[in-house]
Amino acid sequence: MKKFVAGFMSGLLLGAAVLVIGQESFYKGKTVYVKVPEENLRVTPGGDKFGNVLKGTSMQILAKQDKWLYVALVGYIWSESVTGDENVFRGTPYRAAMILVKTQAEADAILQELKAGGDFAQIAAKKSISATSAKGGDLGDAYPGDFAPALEKAILALKIGDVSTVVKTEHGFHIFKRLK
């Protein structure tokens, strides 16, 4: 019986070793090559496709997650075909300043003050409840899709230097000035 168990266990170990040897090992830093005619590149495992690589393309493994490999492509590309600034894909930037208050009455009074020649940045610093009030309401550079549609529509409808009418949201009452 001992010989049977020992033989059985040896057989199992030998079988497991053959399976492990037969499988290709993938590890960080290893260079791998696409073996199918075309393979998809994805943002995340099983996620959105953002490109393709062709058979023979070499890549370096950066990480392994289940059956997915996070890779870096190895090869040459024309330098003028690439950019280090991902914002070029986001559209034309714009800039605005905002005054945010809690009531319609406050917003209407501020709008009248602005129409009478009041300085937007000074009024924002004194009266806005927004976190940007210390910067005169300046929201910084923004790209299409950065703000809620109603706010973006109000900002983009303005010419540079113009002030919006009052825009009501769940956060309060907004007044915008287009800066860029």
Defining traits:
Chitinase A, domain 3, 4-stranded antiparallel β-sheet, 9 strands, 3-stranded antiparallel β-sheet, 180 residues
Structure summarized in a few sentences:
The protein is α+β, with helices and mostly antiparallel strands and 180 residues long. The chain has helices at residues 2-22, 104-115, 120-127, 149-156; strands spanning 31-33, 38-42, 49-54, 58-65, 68-74, 94-101, 138-142, 167-169, 172-178.
Task: Explain what this protein looks like in three dimensions.
The chain has 180 residues and is an alpha+beta fold. It has 2 domains: 26-79; 91-178, Chitinase A, domain 3 (Roll). It is 27% helix and 29% strand. It has 4 helices and 9 strands; from the N terminus they run αββββββααβαββ. The strands form 3 sheets. It has a 4-stranded antiparallel beta sheet with strand order 7-6-9-8, sandwiched between helices. The chain is elongated, with a radius of gyration of 30 Å.
Mean pLDDT: 86
Number of domains: 2
What CATH architecture label of the largest domain applies? Roll
Q: Roughly how many Å is the radius of gyration? A: 30 Å
CATH topology of the largest domain: Chitinase A, domain 3
Residue runs with pLDDT of under 50 for 5 or more positions: 12-21
Q: Please state the structural category.
A: alpha+beta
Sheet with the most strands: spatial strand order: 7-6-9-8
Count of individual beta strands: 9
CATH class of the largest domain: Alpha Beta
Helix content: 25-40%
Straight-line N-to-C gap: 87 Å
Fraction in beta strands? 25-35%
Main sheet summary: 4 strands, antiparallel
How large is the count of helical segments? 4
